[in-house]
Automatic annotation (TrEMBL):
Keywords: ANK repeat
Database matches in InterPro entries: Ankyrin_rpt, Ankyrin_rpt-contain_sf
Pfam family, one: Ank_2
Protein name as it appears in the record: ANKFY1
Organism ancestry: Eukaryota, Metazoa, Spiralia, Lophotrochozoa, Bryozoa
């Protein structure tokens, strides 16, 4: 399905046809189509705003992730007009309301509403200049709501930073669940939420309260939010060795969500799992391994960072012999063999990588493990717990 075909459906005001065909596309194709601009620089969303097709705009808003929606609503045509400028010009209040009530954060909405076109005019100013005063009031109300929400978030963040548990609890008790998620998910300039800050400082009681107050889907969404360095809340807790918080978060998640969150990588490609392995934090590693399905565990061990290092390479660099063997004994013979043969960007297997650091404990333990596996095949094996005990 080409972008030209979808654009033609919009031009023909064939809303049902657009919704049908748009729904059949993959997310990547949807995003590519929505970012296409015609000779005037207008996107499909801009065209839908011009032709007053609110159902098309609503379908787009509901179909794409928050950050991608922000990018698309921010696209300017050759006049510097965003889709909201176009809606404001034609007085299409319904379209403006769809955007204001969308999944966009307050910071994203503020940015979009403050975008100026080539004539240095904002969306609100465009609505006023065209005489659409009711729409202008709607936009102004939106801006005032954003300011109010940001004031609330500032107070919540201040209470978290200063470890005022009673204030945090009072704030959270005063909010609806929808409002609470919005406040907890709000990010500062560094991309940190209030929960990132609580995790960094080890405020377990605050994290526990947040987990109790949020619905499970909102909690999972919150735990996927990454700051400017790519750190999720779990990654922050792991990096700062806040073991109780890490365990609390892991215990709060269903298996599918935990697997997904553990695979999230920061800007360097590190995951919460690989950091735990590199530091040999067995209390946390044991929880992860116990909860993860075997296929997900294998996939996590093989996940590479920006240097091509897998979790086993991380264990090698940290000389974490016990953690390495602990993981290997949870894999099939073929999986364990594959894990030990993977090379990083420098061409090193985990054993070769450990040798480059002179990490003798790791090397000798892996060699012992391999000999034990050979003995298994010959019927001369020792129980796994004996092998693990010898490494302690």
């Amino acid at each position: 399905m080409s972008g030209a075909r979808l654009r033609k459906l919009v031009e023909e005001e064939n809303v049902a046809g657009f919704i049908r065909d748009f729904a059949s596309l993959s997310l990547d194709t949807k995003l590519a189509v929505l970012k296409e601009q015609d000779f005037c620089g207008k996107t499909i969303m801009g065209l839908a705003a011009e032709l007053y097709l609110p159902e098309v705009v609503e379908k787009i808003i509901d179909s794409i992730p928050q950050d991608d929606l922000f990018d698309i609503v921010s696209i300017k045509d050759k006049h510097g007009d965003t889709p909201l400028h176009i809606a404001a010009y034609f007085g299409e209040e319904k379209i403006v309301k769809y955007v204001l009530n969308s999944k966009l954060t307050t910071a994203q909405l503020r940015h979009i509403l403050n975008i100026k076109n080539n004539n240095k005019i904002t969306v609100h100013q465009r609505a006023v200049s065209e005489g659409h005063l009711r729409m202008a009031d709607t936009i102004l109300d939106g801006l005032q709501w954003i300011e109010s929400e940001e004031d609330k978030n500032s107070m919540l963040r201040e209470a978290v930073e200063s470890s005022q548990m009673s204030r945090v609890e009072a704030f959270m008790n005063s909010m609806s669940k929808v409002e609470l998620y919005s406040q907890l998910a709000a990010q500062d300039k560094a991309g940190n939420t209030a929960v990132h800050i609580a995790a960094h400082n080890g405020y377990k009681d605050m994290i526990e309260l947040m987990i109790q107050k949020l619905e499970q889907p909102d909690l999972c969404k919150l735990l996927k939010i990454q700051n400017g360095k790519g750190f999720t809340i779990l990654l922050v807790a792991v990096w700062n060795k806040k073991i109780e918080i890490v365990t609390l978060i892991l215990d709060s998640l269903p298996l599918a969500a935990m697997s997904e969150i553990l695979q999230i990588q920061n800007k360097h490609g590190a995951t919460a799992f690989s950091i735990v392995v590199q530091n040999g934090v067995m209390e946390i590693l044991a929880v992860m391994v116990r909860k993860l399905p075997k296929a997900d565990l294998y996939r996590l061990i093989l996940l590479e960072d920006n240097d091509g290092d897998t979790a086993m390479h991380c264990a090698a660099s940290g000389n974490q012999a016990y953690a390495a063997v602990f993981l290997l004994t949870r894999l099939t013979s073929e999986e364990a063999k594959n894990v030990l043969q993977v090379t990083n960007n420098s061409g090193f297997t985990p054993i070769e990588y450990a040798n480059s650091y002179t990490n003798i404990d790791f090397v000798s333990s892996i060699i012992t493990y391999q000999k034990q596996k050979e003995a298994n095949l010959k019927g001369m094996s020792k129980p796994v717990h004996v092998l693990m005990q010898n490494l302690k």
